[in-house]
């Protein structure tokens, strides 16, 4: 245990010692032992916390040799340097005093009448007494926190207890439940603008469960405050370990129930409702299912998250859902998140769409990559949740196949895509794509790159309602280049591209092709 230099100098036996320089370090540097130095390079053996004492004889011939000693001691964590100025040294050089001030390293003026033993004994006695006081107080603090845990207390009580013992307001970023907690004394305006600094990380079994942060200038610095902090961290980690076990059990039961519910279609029975209540579902009215799926990462994120989906921490996702959709249940299905959302009335679906869009945007912001969201239609009972899930899954699939990721779309919004989705994989759909686009798709083998260029041109024409000027601008090509490509398309497809029916069929064939429907030769 240690005393600050300021507390050390307040001992009655040391009342004659003055401060020459480095006064700002009196409260921030702590004394753990006392050492009399007899070599000018004593800083090479400094471990930290030493109160150094010198008669000054070593530097009597060249006082500037104090410069490397002062700098070395300050940077190595020594508490202070006391010199008997006036016995072998006159006034200390200005350079030495300025250096000590710049390093906040206290230089002390020890009167010649004070013997070394008169400094060492009082300080060591004070350190022993302080250690006893801290151990006694530490035992009280430890018992207090353990009692809170035994009584079923939560993190909030631990934070309030820490503040009451130390006077230091504290914030806790809970990575297990994805939320923040503040001790009672944390000002409201600070809470609103708080940014998690993570000054004191907490790790349980290799997993970061949270971090503690303090107000600037109110950090726990003294040995007693550090002892209280150690007990508070232990108490919070015990609670975090308990919460991790509870959440793991809750998540397992919830995931099993939801995934079984979404993959089956049955009759709503009392047993189904009872199981739903066990995992937190209290609703018996209309509902719908929403899905969130990540898009492909790019740049540095592609290295961190290879593949098509980007993970986000379950507690943070849970926090997003709790804030936007109270009462909803969710499950992690590997490549996507599924949400079972209660509605008070079917017409409330507009509010639900806004809430799901907010979650999608939050996840996108946190991962830095595009996220897609899809909602099934409103269903009347829990037994119909599987139907809403199938619709949401189909909507997500259509968004991906038509290259419209990064949006929030309802099944009810889809029109033509839903009709075309029914043809996907069917022989009729394959024949239709083959009939209208076969020559264009086959051209790739004969004219590498040419087919892709003409396919892109055809898509742009459909997208711009066959307006040549707008299409040329869309493709960033000259209008004459576009006309040349259109003539190539007409020849290759053997179609009159001015005919409205041909244009419609080409557009439908492109949509089907974009949905990855295979075609046969």
Percentage of helical residues? 40-55%
Shape: elongated
What number of domains?
4
Structural class: alpha/beta
Give an account of the 3D structure.
There is one protein chain. The chain is about 50% helix and about 15% strand. The C terminus is likely disordered. It has a 5-stranded mixed sheet, sandwiched between helices. It has about 525 residues and is α/β, with parallel strands linked by helices. A hairpin with a 2-residue loop joins strand 10 and strand 11. The chain is elongated, with a radius of gyration of 37 Å. Helix 4 runs antiparallel to helix 5, helix 14 packs across helix 15 and helix 16 crosses helix 17.
What order do the helices and strands come in, and which of them pair?
Blueprint: E1 3-4, H1 5-9, E2 18-21, E3 30-31, E4 33-36, E5 50-54, H2 66-75, E6 80-83, H3 94-102, E7 107-109, H4 116-150, H5 155-166, E8 170-174, E9 179-182, H6 188-192, E10 200-204, E11 207-214, H7 223-262, H8 270-278, E12 287-294, H9 300-304, H10 314-324, E13 329-332, E14 337-342, H11 349-367, E15 371-375, H12 385-401, E16 408-410, H13 416-421, H14 427-446, H15 450-463, H16 468-475, H17 479-493, H18 500-514
Parallel strand pairs: 4-5, 5-6, 6-7, 15-16
Antiparallel strand pairs: 1-3, 2-7, 8-9, 8-11, 10-11, 12-14, 12-15, 13-14
Helix pairs in contact: 2-3, 4-5, 4-7, 5-7, 10-11, 14-15, 14-18, 15-16, 16-17
């Amino acid at each position: 245990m240690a005393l600050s230099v300021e507390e050390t100098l307040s001992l009655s036996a040391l009342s004659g010692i003055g401060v020459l320089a480095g006064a700002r370090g009196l409260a921030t540097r702590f004394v753990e032992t006392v050492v009399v130095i007899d070599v000018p390079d004593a800083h090479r053996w400094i471990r930290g916390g030493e109160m150094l004492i010198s008669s000054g004889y070593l530097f009597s011939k060249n006082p500037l040799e104090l410069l490397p000693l002062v700098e070395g001691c300050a940077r190595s964590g020594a508490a202070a340097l006391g010199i008997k100025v006036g016995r072998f040294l006159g006034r200390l050089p200005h350079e030495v005093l300025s250096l000590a001030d710049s390093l906040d390293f206290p230089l002390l003026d020890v009167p010649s009448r004070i013997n070394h033993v008169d400094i060492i004994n009082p300080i060591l006695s004070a350190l022993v007494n302080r250690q006893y006081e801290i151990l006694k107080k530490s035992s009280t603090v430890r018992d207090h926190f353990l009692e809170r845990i035994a009584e079923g207390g939560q993190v909030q009580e631990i934070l309030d207890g820490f503040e009451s013992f130390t006077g230091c307001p504290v914030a806790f970023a809970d990575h297990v439940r994805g939320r923040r907690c503040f001790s009672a004394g944390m000002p409201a305006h600070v809470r609103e603008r708080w940014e998690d600094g993570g000054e004191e990380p907490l790790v349980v079994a290799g997993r970061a469960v949270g971090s503690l942060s303090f107000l600037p200038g109110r950090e726990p610095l003294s040995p007693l405050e550090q002892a209280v902090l150690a007990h508070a961290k232990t108490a919070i980690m015990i609670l975090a370990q308990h919460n991790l076990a509870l959440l793991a059990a809750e998540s397992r039961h919830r995931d099993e129930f939801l995934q079984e519910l979404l993959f089956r279609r049955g009759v709503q029975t009392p047993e189904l409702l009872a199981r739903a209540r066990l995992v937190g579902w209290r609703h018996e009215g209309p509902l719908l299912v929403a899905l969130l799926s990540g898009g492909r990462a790019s740049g540095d994120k592609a290295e961190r998250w290879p593949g098509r989906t980007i993970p986000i921490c379950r507690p943070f996702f849970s926090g997003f859902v709790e804030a936007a959709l109270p009462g909803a249940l969710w499950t992690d299905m590997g490549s996507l998140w599924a949400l079972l959302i209660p509605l008070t009335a079917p017409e409330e679906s507009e509010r639900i769409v806004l809430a799901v869009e907010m979650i999608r945007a939050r996840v996108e912001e946190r991962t830095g990559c595009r996220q897609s969201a899809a909602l099934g239609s409103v269903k009347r009972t829990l037994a119909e949740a599987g139907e809403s899930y199938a619709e949401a899954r189909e909507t997500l699939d259509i968004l991906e196949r038509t290259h419209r990721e990064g949006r929030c779309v309802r099944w009810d919004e889809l029109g033509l895509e839903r009709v075309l989705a029914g043809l996907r994989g069917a022989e009729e759909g394959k024949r239709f794509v083959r009939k209208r686009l076969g020559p264009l798709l086959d051209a790739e083998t004969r004219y590498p790159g040419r087919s892709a260029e003409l396919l892109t041109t055809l898509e742009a024409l459909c997208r711009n309602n066959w307006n040549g000027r707008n299409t040329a601008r869309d493709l960033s090509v000259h209008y004459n280049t576009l006309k040349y490509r259109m003539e190539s398309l007409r020849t290759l497809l053997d179609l009159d591209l001015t005919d409205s029916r041909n244009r419609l069929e080409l557009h439908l064939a492109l949509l089907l092709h974009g949905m990855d429907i295979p075609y046969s030769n």
